[in-house]
DNA sequence: GGCGATTTTGACAATCGTTCTCACTTTGAG
DNA sequence: CTCAAAGTGAGAACGATTGTCAAAATCGCC
């Protein structure tokens, strides 16, 4: 069987998945690895990367890049959505915008592009951080 | 007067800027460096990075990250816009969507976020590549 | 429960884009 | 011209990610 890449379930993969479920913000592989170790979960860094990779492929985890190119991961709902992220504390809100979806498809179509996808993230300072820092 | 961070004009910076003007697609620093060298323009890699960095800060060059985290650069118009990029050949079209801009700001505001920015890129297969590959 | 084929793991090395270092060169004001 | 300030570049350093490969875990089967 081809297609679906079902991996054998292991303690390590479960640990990564569980930690992601518990985290509400986008988190880097290195940070996840460090947290798992701290909490007494022995796991190799390469294994964390592999687990994240397969979860991203499976669509159960979203990944995006910070400004300095580091990949950060988050367990999200599986339907299509985007993110509103606090630049300061990392607080993340899932948002949807049907109008944006159709706009992107229409614009791409007008220029003769097919097989269209897009990336869209919104960054700002959340209310909590705004009061704190000022 | 100082104020703005104007850099001293040099042959190398001009070469990077000129090459970017000539390129219609997003290009990596390494590629730009290689092209400059090929065309007989002696220049160091670090200098290419520095030139790109200051142009990005000055707002005369746009930068985005490829899926594998590499930064790619392009000389774009200076007003706010987004990009429609061919996944196959790299052809890039600048696009604008006032509706998207206001949507992003509104959504962020509804969640109490301030100082809002966003990133938005559209990817697809351009007409030329669609016919070629099939 | 035990067995062997197959997959996963993990310590470590390797890769790769990017930044840093620092001696040398270029620039530009006086 | 002269000199201080700014820019350059070869190579070292860096940090995130991926590759390696022997040891360990898993699964289907007896
Ligand atoms: Zn915040
Ligand atoms: Zn969308
Ligand atoms: Zn194309
Ligand atoms: Zn915009």
From TrEMBL, chains A, B:
<dbReference type="InterPro" id="IPR043135">
    <property type="entry name" value="Fur_C"/>
</dbReference>
<dbReference type="GO" id="GO:0045892">
    <property type="term" value="P:negative regulation of DNA-templated transcription"/>
</dbReference>
<protein>
    <submittedName>
        <fullName>Peptide ABC transporter substrate-binding protein</fullName>
    </submittedName>
</protein>
<keyword id="KW-0678">Repressor</keyword>
<feature type="binding site">
    <location>
        <position position="89"/>
    </location>
    <ligand>
        <name>Zn(2+)</name>
    </ligand>
</feature>
<dbReference type="GO" id="GO:0000976">
    <property type="term" value="F:transcription cis-regulatory region binding"/>
</dbReference>
<dbReference type="GO" id="GO:0003700">
    <property type="term" value="F:DNA-binding transcription factor activity"/>
</dbReference>
<keyword id="KW-0862">Zinc</keyword>
<dbReference type="InterPro" id="IPR036388">
    <property type="entry name" value="WH-like_DNA-bd_sf"/>
</dbReference>
<feature type="binding site">
    <location>
        <position position="126"/>
    </location>
    <ligand>
        <name>Zn(2+)</name>
    </ligand>
</feature>
<comment type="similarity">
    <text>Belongs to the Fur family.</text>
</comment>
<keyword id="KW-0479">Metal-binding</keyword>
<keyword id="KW-0408">Iron</keyword>
<feature type="binding site">
    <location>
        <position position="80"/>
    </location>
    <ligand>
        <name>Fe cation</name>
    </ligand>
</feature>
<dbReference type="GO" id="GO:0008270">
    <property type="term" value="F:zinc ion binding"/>
</dbReference>
<comment type="subunit">
    <text>Homodimer.</text>
</comment>
<keyword id="KW-0963">Cytoplasm</keyword>
<feature type="binding site">
    <location>
        <position position="101"/>
    </location>
    <ligand>
        <name>Fe cation</name>
    </ligand>
</feature>
<dbReference type="Pfam" id="PF01475">
    <property type="entry name" value="FUR"/>
</dbReference>
<feature type="binding site">
    <location>
        <position position="86"/>
    </location>
    <ligand>
        <name>Zn(2+)</name>
    </ligand>
</feature>
<feature type="binding site">
    <location>
        <position position="118"/>
    </location>
    <ligand>
        <name>Fe cation</name>
    </ligand>
</feature>
<keyword id="KW-0805">Transcription regulation</keyword>
<dbReference type="GO" id="GO:1900376">
    <property type="term" value="P:regulation of secondary metabolite biosynthetic process"/>
</dbReference>
<keyword id="KW-0238">DNA-binding</keyword>
<dbReference type="InterPro" id="IPR036390">
    <property type="entry name" value="WH_DNA-bd_sf"/>
</dbReference>
<feature type="binding site">
    <location>
        <position position="129"/>
    </location>
    <ligand>
        <name>Zn(2+)</name>
    </ligand>
</feature>
<keyword id="KW-0804">Transcription</keyword>
<dbReference type="InterPro" id="IPR002481">
    <property type="entry name" value="FUR"/>
</dbReference>
<dbReference type="GO" id="GO:0005829">
    <property type="term" value="C:cytosol"/>
</dbReference>
């Amino acid at each position: 069987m081809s297609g679906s890449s079902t991996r054998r379930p292991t303690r390590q993969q479960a640990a990564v998945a569980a930690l992601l479920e518990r985290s509400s913000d986008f988190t880097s592989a290195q940070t996840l690895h460090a947290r798992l170790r701290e909490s007494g979960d022995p796991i190799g860094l390469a294994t964390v990367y592999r687990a994240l990779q397969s979860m991203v492929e499976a669509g159960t985890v979203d990944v995006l890049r910070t400004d300095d190119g580091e990949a950060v991961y988050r367990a999200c709902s599986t339907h299509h959505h985007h993110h509103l992220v606090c630049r300061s504390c990392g607080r993340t809100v899932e948002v949807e915008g049907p109008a944006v979806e159709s706009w992107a498809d229409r614009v791409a179509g007008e220029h003769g592009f097919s097989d269209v996808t897009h990336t869209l993230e919104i960054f700002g300072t959340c209310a909590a951080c705004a009061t704190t820092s000022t």
